């Protein structure tokens, strides 16, 4: 299916020079850390992947703490709780719960990476919501389906054991639970939601999914991948090809159902209960055709899905507070959560 066409496809996004510089620096660090022998130089990449600790004292109106689920596989989450739950739009004291999966091509970054700590703190404060940011195993050391296994285990923990976590607030409403994620985390959110059908939750109810520029792909080269390959270095064909190869089972190609959700090898989800899904797409994201196909696939299978497009943004725009689209993004997510909460 050809790209829908975008007048900006051959142009360049309007970004501050500081944002361009930071994106280029991170892309360079990722590129040199991805070795030809399919190992990843974590020591080198950690030089640019700044980490931050949880904050028991409120920081920007949000406090956080870390909860370990399985130290043997480094599975844990960072819990974010807004300290002021009274907002102009709230009519009750309860808050929705967002289970968030970070991006990074299944290969890099973590729940305590500064960019995700800032991002999840902002979500918790401005939605407002209780946010559970998941730290899952990474490829290539841990390939598919390790990440999906970790994701579903976190949902099981939340359902059965979250009451043992002393920092988990009484105002959190597990019947208004959303799975969300950006890039690879958006892929994770979808696949975890599909797997959740195999679980019988007692306390947790998934009522929505937020896929933020999700990382999907296939063997085909789409028009947007070719047109925007040099514009958004963080998701260039060279890097995304390497990440798929590092993540997928050895011998698989990019038409594996984990990558190409509605391709020739896709799992039939006609009878699968998938929560209402919001798919966020950027006009300068090389992955946008795959993201739109995912949305179209959901609609084709009778699922409730909404497509939000920002024509002038790059992959990962929500990390940069200087970009005004970040505020629009928060507004759209808040509206989606409120709408789905009202239906539940």
How is this structure best described in words?
There is one protein chain. The protein is an alpha/beta fold and 344 residues long. The protein has 9 helices and 8 strands. The chain has an 8-stranded mixed β-sheet with strand order 1-2-4-3-5-6-7-8, with helices on both faces. Strand 3 (95-101), helix 3 (114-126) and strand 4 form a beta-alpha-beta unit. Helix 4 (146-161) crosses helix 5 (184-195). The chain is globular.
Task: Indicate the topology.
Blueprint: H1 17-33, H2 42-45, E1 62-70, E2 75-82, E3 95-101, H3 114-126, E4 130-135, H4 146-161, E5 172-182, H5 184-195, E6 206-212, H6 223-227, H7 237-247, E7 276-282, H8 288-300, E8 305-310, H9 325-343
Helix pairs in contact: 4-5
* Strand residue percentage: 15-25%
Distance from first to last alpha carbon: 35 Å
The arrangement of helices and strands along the chain is HHEEEHEHEHEHHEHEH
What would you call the structural class? alpha/beta
| Shape summary | globular
Largest sheet: 8 strands, mixed
The DSSP helix count reads 9
Kindly state the percentage of residues in helix.
25-40%
Give the strand order of the largest sheet, numbering strands 1, 2, ... along the chain: 1-2-4-3-5-6-7-8
Query: What's the Cα radius of gyration?
Result: 19 Å
**Parts with pLDDT < 50 across at least 5 consecutive residues:** 1-10, 86-91
- Count of individual beta strands: 8
Mean model confidence by pLDDT = 93
């Amino acid at each position: 299916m050809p790209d829908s066409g975008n007048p900006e496809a051959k142009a360049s996004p309007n970004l501050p020079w500081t944002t361009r510089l930071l994106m280029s620096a991170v892309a360079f660090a990722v590129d040199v850390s991805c070795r030809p022998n399919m190992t990843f130089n974590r020591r080198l990449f950690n030089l640019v992947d700044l980490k931050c600790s949880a904050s028991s004292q409120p920081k920007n109106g949000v406090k956080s703490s870390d909860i370990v689920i399985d130290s043997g596989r480094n599975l844990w989450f960072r819990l974010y709780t807004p300290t002021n739950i009274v907002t102009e739009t709230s009519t009750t004291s309860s808050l929705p719960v967002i289970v968030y999966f970070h991006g990074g091509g299944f290969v890099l970054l973590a729940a305590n990476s500064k960019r995700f700590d800032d991002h999840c703190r902002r979500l918790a404060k401005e939605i407002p919501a209780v946010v559970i940011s998941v730290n899952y195993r990474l490829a290539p050391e841990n390939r598919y389906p390790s990440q999906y296994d970790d994701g579903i285990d976190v949902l099981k923990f939340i359902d059965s054991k979250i009451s043992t976590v002393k920092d988990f607030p009484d105002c959190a409403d597990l019947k208004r639970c959303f799975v969300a994620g950006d890039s690879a985390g958006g892929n994770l959110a979808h696949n975890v939601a599909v797997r959740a059908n195999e679980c019988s939750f007692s306390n947790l109810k998934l009522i929505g999914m937020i896929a933020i520029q999700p990382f999907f792909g296939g063997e085909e080269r789409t028009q947007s991948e070719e047109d925007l390959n040099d514009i958004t270095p963080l998701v260039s064909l060279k890097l995304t090809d390497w990440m798929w190869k590092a993540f997928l089972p050895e011998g698989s190609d990019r038409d594996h159902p984990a990558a190409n959700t509605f391709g020739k090898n896709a799992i039939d989800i006609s009878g699968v209960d998938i929560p209402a899904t919001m798919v966020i797409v950027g006009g300068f994201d090389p992955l946008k055709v795959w993201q739109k196909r995912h949305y179209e696939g959901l609609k084709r299978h009778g699922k409730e899905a909404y497509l939000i497009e920002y024509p002038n943004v790059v992959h990962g725009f929500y990390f940069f507070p200087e970009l005004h689209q970040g505020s629009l993004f928060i507004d759209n997510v808040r509206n989606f959560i409120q709408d789905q909460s009202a239906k539940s």
